[in-house]
Design brief:
Family: Belongs to the aldehyde dehydrogenase family.
Shape: globular
Keywords: Oxidoreductase
Structural class: alpha/beta
CATH topology of the largest domain: Aldehyde Dehydrogenase, Chain A, domain 1
Number of helices: 16
Strand content: 15-25%
CATH superfamily of the largest domain: Aldehyde Dehydrogenase, Chain A, domain 1
Bound molecules: nicotinamide-adenine-dinucleotide
Strand order of the largest sheet: 15-16-17-14-13-18-19
Organism: Amycolatopsis pigmentata
InterPro entries: Ald_DH/histidinol_DH (IPR016161), Ald_DH_C (IPR016163), Ald_DH_CS_GLU (IPR029510), Ald_DH_N (IPR016162), Aldehyde_DH_dom (IPR015590)
Number of domains: 2
Pfam families: Aldedh (PF00171)
Mean pLDDT: 97
Largest sheet: 7 strands, mixed
Length: 489
């Protein structure tokens, strides 16, 4: 297999180069705790040059003027080129993030699916509508690309996170400065390589790697028209504020603390079959993860026992091991944070039905046991804070109104779930859940054609589906030979 690229610079106007200061930062493999590569630490000058390249490609380059059908053809070739790199890219994602090999491969495949979906959707998009108004005036209603997009992504599945905005921005005719997480900066390089081979003009996609300071400069830059941010709610707040002085368009995909509400008639086998993968997916580091299980008191012990038995069978280990289902957490800092949260559960009177610490026999690597916490209250730290690990908190309820209150009593609103044998009852409760998506009899789900996004402090804006593409257009109206204005209709 080809050895993945373990050193990269910044990618600006179609050229890879070192950061202007020559500064780099090292990367640590979360499974071995060993250094494995380095990335350029972009300076403010590099960020400025990347924005300049994107601005020039938007103002004077061919991309925004290219027909949407031709842009779709480039997206298709982009997918084909990237497909050739699935193996080395997955190998790199595994080292950057500790995601097991199938999840790492799945990340690249998600990008292919999104590129191809939007390329197909282009055939259905009318960029110009000729409309006759109520006064008899004729106007052209046109979809225009928003402009220069700063796309800032997190480390948990870096290629998937890029997929949620990059194909839509490109198809709409925007130009992009992509800022990957400092914990997974190298994998995005494969996107630039594949896009270049596919014929994307220079400057349309630029990549700056670096610490948060690099993206702070990007967010403040007045030549950026839109920020597509995926990351924590805390950073989302900072970004929304930094975007305000120049009134940039902002979309925020932020944290979550999803709940799965189990009704008294919910089939246990389906609950176990769907909840276990929903918790373990992406090493438990998924914004959609239903990390709170809200259960009726009479069924508490039965449910905890069944899930604990299933959690105990999960194979935790190195991501390259073909049997591994859950790899390490992303970093030492996150590992210490999660272990601290588990200790707080004990301080809050909680118990571990399974797990609760580091797995035996894995002395190296940022591993955490699949864990179920019981005996804590809905206002405890583990029940309110995003944990981002293979950890489930079980919260009992007496009646459905109390259950709904527990589900909705959170600052987040990304995803929830409801389990019941009665579809009508489940749907009625789903409609009362304050979140961007609700799953009936499943823990979490995504589909490229279905919009995704949060409410409350999980953010705003929608990705995927036609709605995701709409976010990269703005409307321009051209009136044709209107008479002097004499009223709206
Ligand atoms: P993070 O907020 O720490 O960082 C995300 C990105 O923002 C990184 O690229 C980082 O360099 C950059 N950044 C950090 N501080 C910045 C600042 N002040 N200005 C501009 N950019 C800044 O998040 P993370 O730890 O990388 O990712 C985990 C979080 O992401 C979790 O909260 C998770 O729920 C969330 N997430 C949300 C979604 C979603 O779609 N809603 C998807 C995945 C992850």
């Amino acid at each position: 297999m080809t050895i993945p690229v373990l050193k990269r610079g910044v990618y600006i106007a179609g050229t890879w180069r070192a950061s202007s200061t020559g500064e780099t930062f090292g990367l640590v493999d979360p499974a071995t705790e060993q250094p494995f590569g380095e990335a350029a630490a972009a300076s403010a000058d590099d960020v400025s040059a990347a924005v300049e390249a994107a601005r020039a490609a938007f103002e004077d380059g061919p991309w925004p003027q290219t027909s949407i059908t031709d842009r779709a053809a480039v997206l298709r070739r982009f997918a084909d080129e990237l497909e050739a790199d699935v193996e080395p890219l997955a190998e790199l994602v595994m080292r950057e993030t500790g995601l097991p090999r199938p999840d790492s491969i799945g990340g690249t495949k998600a990008m292919l699916a999104v590129l191809r979906y939007y390329a197909d959707l282009a055939d259905e998009i009318e960029l110009t509508e000729r409309r006759v108004g109520r006064t008899g005036v004729t106007a052209l209603i046109e979809k225009q690309p928003v402009g220069v997009v700063a796309q800032i992504v997190p480390w948990n599945s870096p290629i998937v996170m890029a997929a949620f905005n990059l194909p839509t921005a490109l198809l709409a005719g925007c130009t992009v400065v992509l800022k990957p997480s400092e914990l997974s900066p190298l994998s995005a390089g494969y996107l630039a390589d594949a896009a270049e081979r596919a014929g994307l003009p220079p400057g349309v996609l630029n990549i700056v790697t670096g610490r948060p300071e690099a993206s702070e400069a990007l967010v403040r830059d007045p030549r950026v028209d839109k920020i597509a941010f995926t990351g924590s709610t805390a950073t989302g707040r900072v970004i929304a504020a930094a975007a305000a002085p120049t009134l940039k368009h902002v979309s925020l995909e932020l944290g979550g603390k999803a709940a799965a509400l189990v009704l008294d008639d919910a089939p246990l086998d389906r609950l176990v079959r769907t909840m276990v993968p929903a918790i373990m997916f992406n090493n438990g580091q998924m914004c959609l993860q239903p990390s709170r299980l809200v259960v009726p008191v009479p069924r508490h012990d039965e449910i905890v026992e069944a899930l604990a038995e299933a959690f105990a069978k999960i194979i935790v280990g190195p991501p390259s091991n073909p049997d591994t289902q859950v790899g390490p957490l992303i970093s030492r800092a996150q590992h210490e944070h999660v272990l601290g949260l588990l200790r707080s559960a004990v301080d809050d009177g909680g118990r571990f039905a399974v797990g609760g610490g580091m797995p035996e026999g894995l002395g190296t690597g940022f591993y955490v046991e699949p864990t179920i916490i019981t005996g804590v209250t809905p206002d405890s730290r583990v029940a309110t804070e995003e944990i981002f690990a293979p950890v489930l908190v079980v919260l009992p309820y007496e009646d459905e109104e109390e259950a709904l209150k527990i589900v909705n009593d959170t600052e987040f609103g990304l995803n929830d779930a409801v389990y019941s044998a009665d579809p009508e009852r489940a749907l009625a409760l789903a409609r009362r859940m304050q979140s961007g998506s609700v799953n009936i009899n499943n823990g979490q789900y995504l589909d490229v054609a279905i919009p995704f996004g949060g409410v409350k402090q999980s953010g705003y804006g929608r990705e995927l589906g036609p709605e995701g593409l709409d976010a990269y257009f703005q409307t321009r109206v051209i009136y044709l030979d209107a008479e002097p204005f004499h009223g709206l209709g």
